[in-house]
Structure prediction request, 374 residues.
Amino acid sequence: MIIKSDEIFLENEIIPGYLSIGDGYIKDILTEGQADIDLTGLKVLPGFIDIHVHGGNGFDTMDAEYEAIDAISRYKIEEGVTSFCPTTVTAPEPKIMKALKNIAEAKQRGVSGAKIIGGFLEGPYIDKEFKGAHPEEFIVDIDLVGLQKYIDTGAIKSVAIAPNLDNAYDAIKFCKARGIDVRIGHSGADCGQVQEAIKYGANIAIHTYNAMTGLSHRSPGFVGETLVNDGIYNEIICDLIHVSKRAIQVLVKCKRDKVVLITDCMEAGGLPEGVYKLGELEVVVKDNVVRLAEGGSLAGSTLSVISAVKNMNKIIGVPLFQAVKMAAQNPAKALGIYDEIGSLAVGKKADLIAIDDDFNVKFVMVDGKVIKAV
Prediction:
């Protein structure tokens, strides 16, 4: 199969040309050829990767049913996502176990939309003082035996750890030794504790600025350390609700090649305003803002990745080529899967999308199969 476009976003340049697709991979990049699919007038991009998403279109990872994960995977296609990490929330252990087992089974069975990379265990090993939309009664101390039980489901790609908790550094080493990525956040850690966590192998800051200690002139805090430490990637919810324009610009200035666009989207994504659930908690969606019904804390988002890319480009002022990297290349590198996905290159999976000038997703291909056609 040959795909043609006058704007193909490669790793380091944008070219007119042709992509030769076969057996689910990009076989060649050509300057001429006979197109089977002509996407002239559309920008052909690497498929986006959402490494932090709870749900969408009325479904939640914590539903712990195949139909829910499959529906989320189809929903992600509409925003240009070709791979994602279904994300849990703090809940009773049996519910987390059920959700993780479902992620593992869905990944093995396969889904009809965006591919499952692996689960992101967000909670229960977080700081109660920075819990955000996680129910405090189910937050627990770090227990390596319990952590191993979660890992044994075979579902987990990443685990959230608050660096200021007892046994945090042991847990980070424990996870890294088992091939599990560690993300840090939901924490009152100071800059020194964050520095130590990164030294032990933590490599992603969870929704930067949110649910972590801020930056001040004598206490750089969690935020400050992640802004200057090149050993960590920074998730950001670029909806201009969770974080202001200027604060996002500061992050981009400090960490341009380490910024990872995420949605943190929950089940209300794509649906009208109203009352929904995020795990154990009731939330209210109004004016595109999701808040806990009780207490009013921000509780995830209804953001899409294509909207985050548009915001980064049109409002934050990042060139589109760089904004696309924040949604594809950077998350793939953060999870150590850039050899497979994250850019359009010979030998990589044929995961690609095409958008128009108004940021509408017009075409999606996953593993060489057309999932959404023009």
